Amino acid sequence: MSGDLESPLTLVVADAVRFLSSMPPTVVTDLQPQTVKAGTDVTFKVIVTGTQPFSFQWFLNRTNIATATTDTLTIQRAQPSNAGNYSVTISNIVNSASSSPAALIVTPPASTQLTTTSLNPAGQFQLSLTGDTGVTFVIESSTNLVDWTAITNILNLTGLIEFADPIGTNREARFFRAQWLPQ
Prior knowledge:
Immunoglobulin-like, 46% strand
């Protein structure tokens, strides 16, 4: 009898059950190949769907890059040693997926141009060079154009490099050159 208050009550207890479907990682936007001048910053980014959290591991020429474990890889001041094929493996609780490799080509900087030479007030030979920013050059000197000695390394931050010979003018004839110094 449904209206009878004296009938025994039945207590029903139920646990709520939630079903979550877990999805493996899927690469939505793959890596794109890039060509940059030496000294330029480069960023690779992968976009992924699936069940989070994800773990990421980047590779250069199939070799693990130990510190690269996010969805983005940035290479600061890329050098020829950074050139190669980059890829990333993404993992979650279900499975893993890998991106297609993307080539990074690093081209040499533009030639450095000698713009001025002079003697500064201290009597030192001074030269000015222009070239690509973010590139390191070594300034070398020679007395015979055969044997060269490195004087200093200069990072070109502004596009203009100014160098004054620390030896001064009380020396035999000296020749100078600036060469790109890949990192």
